[in-house]
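Q: Entry one of two.
A:
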Amino acid sequence: MPGIRLSVKAIIVREGRLLVLTCRDDEGVWYLLPGGGQQVGETVDQALRRECLEELGCKVRMGPLRFVRDYISRNHEFAATDPDTHQVELMFECDLESEPSFATQPDAMQEGFAWIDVTRLEGCRLYPRILENKLGSAPRSQVLYLGDVN
C-alpha cells in the first residue's frame, strides 16, 4: 500500500452559498470542495493556494481549520477501482482574494465550478457526503474530526 496522502480543501461560503468543483462520471454530476494533495516542500497554506488557483483560477486566503477526515478507500464504494488509497483531508474555511474564473489545471473529471445554497446540500452528491449536514450544524469554534467517511 502506498503512503498516506495529505490533502487540503477549501470551504468557501459567500452569501449562503458554497463554492464547489463540478465533476461528472457515469452516474452524472457530483461535487467536491476545491483542493488537493500537498507536495513535498510545500506548506499547507501554499498547497491550498496552489490547488485553488489550479482548479478555480482564483486566489484564496486560508482561515481556520474546520474539519479533518480520513478516507480509506477499501472501506467505501470505490474499493473495487481504487483499493489502496488512504488520504487525510484538512478542510479550512477560506475567503476569496479574487473571483473564480477558469481552471488552469483541472482534475480529471472536473467540468468547472458552481455555487450551491448551503441549505440545499442534501442529496446533491457532495463528497464527502457527511458535509451535507455538518457544514451548517457543526460549531465553527472547534475542529471536528469526521472519521473515515465518504
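Q: Entry two of two.
A:
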Amino acid sequence: MHDEVSKEPGRAPHPPAAPVAHRTPSAPSSSRMFAAYLGDIEQLLDAHRPEAALREALDLPRIAVALADPQLRCSRERLKTWCEEWIRPPGAERDAHGLAYEHLARNITERVLQGAEPASVPTRALRRLEDLPARESEAFDMCAALIEAARRWYARSACHDPTVQANLARLAVLR
C-alpha cells in the first residue's frame, strides 16, 4: 500500500511515487474492503434503491474520519472539516456546477452531522464497512458526491496515512 525506497543491497533506491495532481474520476482504492463498500453503494444506485444507497453513503465521512484516528473516533468538528475538504471536487469553483456542489455539500454536511455524537466510534458504520423523482435525484447526487469524495480522500490522503492503513488492517482482522 505504501511506496518505499528500496533498501536491498546492490539495487538502486527508487523514490516514492509522486502523487497525481488531478484524477477524474478518482483512482479506485487499494483497500478491497473500502472498494467493496463503495461498490455496494453503487450497486444500490444501479438497482434504483437511492434511499438505501444514501443511508450507506452518509456513513462514508464517519468511516473516513474514524479510519484517520488512532482510536477510530470521529467528532462533529472533524466530520465537518472532512466534508468541507472532500465533497467539492477539485476545480468545481471554476465550472457551472460549483454552486450546485456548494448546495449539495451543505446538505450532506447537515445530514452527516445530524447523527454524529461527540468523539464517538462510529461502530455501526465501521461494521458495515466490513413517486418522488426530485428526492431520488437528490439522493443519487448526494451518493455520487460522497462516493467521489471518499475515493479522492483515499487516493490522495488515506492510502499514504499510516493510521488509516493500520486501522484498515485492524478491521480486516476483526472480520
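A: Comment on entry two: The chain is about 60% helix and 0% strand. The chain has a mean pLDDT of 78.
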